[in-house]
Design a protein that fits this description.
mainly alpha; 21 helices
C-alpha cells in the first residue's frame, strides 16, 4: 500500500529538484521495483527484452538500405516471438507433440514471466512502427520508461509508444491537479476489483472446480457462467480504470479500454467495446498485414478467423483459449454475413430487432467465457450441459422450503450450494449486472475521451461530492467491507 504514495512523492521531488529526465528515471526505477517485487528473476528477462528491442530498432532506423532495415526488423520480431514461445508455449508444444511420437511429454520447470505477453506485443509494435517510419528513434530513458511504466505494464492498456513517449516530454508531473484528476478514477477501479470481482471469484471458482468431475445443476451452471462473465469484466475493467487513474496522477493519459461491452448489439460491436486496445493492435499489426479486407470477401473472413485464433492463443497456452478465439472468430464471420446479406433485406424490422440482437450477443459472449474460464474441455462441457438443464434442476433445501415446494416431477430439490452461498452469489450477480446495464461506464462517468483526457475543463477532484465519494470507495476497498478474499488480477496470468 505504501508503494504508490512513496513513488508519487519521490517522483514529484525529483522532478522539482533535478528536472524531467531525472524524474523519469526515478519513475522507471520505481516501476522496476514494482515489477521485480513479484519475482526478481523476471527483471533480467524484461531487461534483456528492452535492450534487444531498443538496439535493433536503432539499427532499423539508422540503416539506409531497405533490405537491411527489413532484416533487422524481422530479427527483432523473431527474438520477441522466440522468448514468448519459450516461456509461454514450450510446455504446451511438448505436451501436444510428444504423444505423436509415442513419447511421454516432460515439462520444463519454469515460471511464466509476469506480463510477458503484454510487453512483448507492445515492443513488436514499436519495432514495426520504427520500420514504417511512424515514429523516430527515442532516447533510451524514454523508451525503457515507456515499457516499464508500472500502471500499464502488467495488463495494459496496450500502448502506441509514440503516444506515451511524447507525454513523458510534455506532461510528466505530480501536483494537486494530477492527483485530484486520477484518484477518483483509481478508486472506482479499486472498488470494482475488491468489492465485486473478488466477491464473485469465490463462488465461481468453487463451481468450476466441482465441474471438472461432476455435472453442475442448472442454477449452479448459470451462476458460474454469469458469475465469471461479471467477475472478468469488473476485474479487468477495474484494473484498466486503476491504470488510467494512477497514470493521471503522474500527468500521463492512457487509452480507455472498455465502453460498456455487455451492452453491445453484435459481436462486432462487442469487440469495439471490450479490451479496445487489444482489438486495435490485432487489427493494425495482424489483420491488416494479412491483407485485411483488401483481398476479397472469402480471404477477409479467413484472415479474421486467423486473427481471432491467434488472439485466443495469445491469452493462454491451452486449447480452450484457442477454441474461445475460434468461437469468436466464427461469430464475427456470421455477424459480417448477417450484416451484409440479411440485414439489408429486413428493412425497418432490422432496427426493431435491436433488443434481440443484444440478448443473443450477450448469450454468445457468456457461453464463450465458459471455455475461456474452464481449465479443460471436460469442465467446459459439464458447465454448458448444466446450463442446458441436462443435469438436475435443484435448489438449496432452504429455498425449496421457503417456496413451499417439496417435490415436482422431474425436479430434484437438493443441496446445490449452502443457502448463504447461493443467496450471496445471486445477490452479487443482481448487483453486478444492475451496474453493468444501468450505470454509466467509467469513461462516461468522468467525461473522458478515448485517450482518457477530460472532455471539458472539469476535473473530478474539484467536486466536493466526488471527493466524499472517492473517500467512501477507498474505505470500502481498504477495509474489505464486503468480506471478499483478495485475489490476483485475472489478466496477470496472460
Amino acid at each position: 500500500m505504501a508503494f504508490l504514495p512513496v513513488t508519487l512523492i519521490c517522483t514529484a521531488v525529483t522532478l522539482r529538484v533535478a528536472g524531467r529526465r531525472a524524474g523519469l528515471i526515478c519513475l522507471g526505477a520505481g516501476s522496476l521495483f514494482f515489477y521485480g517485487y513479484w519475482e526478481v528473476a523476471s527483471l533480467a528477462i524484461i531487461g534483456f527484452s528492452i535492450a534487444w528491442n531498443f538496439g535493433l530498432s536503432h539499427l532499423v532506423a539508422r540503416s539506409r538500405k531497405p533490405i537491411y532495415r527489413l532484416a533487422f526488423m524481422w530479427l527483432g520480431i523473431a527474438g520477441n516471438l522466440a522468448a514468448l514461445g519459450y516461456y509461454k508455449y514450450v510446455n504446451f508444444f511438448l505436451a501436444n507433440v510428444a504423444p505423436l511420437f509415442g513419447a511421454t511429454p516432460a515439462a520444463i520447470a519454469m515460471t511464466l514471466p509476469l506480463a510477458i505477453s503484454f510487453y512483448t506485443f507492445q515492443q513488436i509494435a514499436f519495432m514495426v512502427d520504427i520500420y514504417g517510419r511512424k515514429m523516430d528513434r527515442v532516447p533510451f530513458a524514454e523508451y525503457a520508461g515507456s515499457v516499464v511504466f508500472f500502471p500499464h505494464l502488467i495488463a495494459g492498456p496496450l500502448l502506441h509508444y509514440q503516444d506515451i513517449v511524447s507525454q513523458f516530454k510534455r506532461r510528466l508531473s505530480v501536483s494537486q491537479a494530477t492527483l485530484s484528476a486520477g484518484l477518483p478514477i483509481f478508486a472506482v477501479g479499486l472498488v470494482k476489483k475488491v468489492a465485486i470481482a473478488d466477491g464473485l471469484s469465490v463462488y465461481v471458482g468453487s463451481i468450476f472446480a466441482r465441474g471438472a468431475t461432476t455435472l453442475p445443476d442448472f442454477f449452479s451452471a448459470w451462476g458460474a457462467a454469469l458469475g465469471y462473465t461479471a467477475q472478468l469484466y469488473f476485474d479487468f475493467s477495474g484494473y484498466s480504470d486503476m491504470a488510467i487513474g494512477i497514470a493521471l496522477m503522474f500527468g500521463i493519459t492512457l487509452p480507455v479500454n472498455f465502453r460498456s461491452p455487455y451492452k453491445a448489439t453484435s459481436i462486432i460491436d462487442f469487440w469495439r467495446r471490450w479490451h479496445i486496445t487489444l482489438s486495435s493492435f490485432l487489427r493494425d499489426y495482424l489483420y491488416i498485414p494479412l491483407g485485411g479486407g483488401r483481398v476479397g470477401p472469402v480471404r477477409r473472413l479467413i484472415n479474421l478467423l486467423i486473427v481471432m485464433l491467434l488472439g485466443g492463443l495469445w491469452h493462454g497456452a491451452a486449447w480452450t483459449f484457442v477454441f474461445w478465439g475460434g468461437l469468436h472468430g466464427s461469430l464475427l464471420i456470421l455477424n459480417h454475413f448477417w450484416r451484409e446479406r440479411i440485414s439489408p433485406r429486413l428493412g425497418r424490422l432490422d432496427a426493431a430487432l435491436g433488443p434481440i440482437y443484444a440478448g443473443a450477443t450477450f448469450l454468445a459472449v457468456v457461453i464463450a467465457w465458459v471455455f475461456f474460464r474452464a481449465p479443460n474441455f471436460a469442465t467446459a462441457q459439464h458447465v454448458i450441459l448444466g446450463m442446458c438443464g441436462l443435469s438436475t434442476l435443484s435448489l438449496p433445501g432452504e429455498v425449496a422450503y421457503l417456496l413451499g415446494v417439496d417435490e415436482l416431477p422431474g425436479v430434484t430439490w437438493g443441496q446445490t450450494l449452502p443457502f448463504k452461498d447461493f443467496a450471496t452469489l445471486w445477490l452479487l450477480l443482481a448487483f453486478a449486472f444492475a451496474l453493468i446495464w444501468g450505470a454509466p461506464n467509467t469513461a462516461d462517468l468522468f467525461n473522458l475521451d478515448d485517450k482518457a483526457q477530460f472532455r471539458s475543463d472539469w476535473t473530478a477532484g474539484r467536486s466536493f461530492a466526488t471527493a466524499i465519494t472517492t473517500g467512501i470507495l477507498l474505505w470500502i476497498s481498504a477495509f474489505n467491507v464486503f468480506g471478499s478474499a483478495p485475489s490476483e488480477f485475472l489478466y496477470f496470468q496472460f
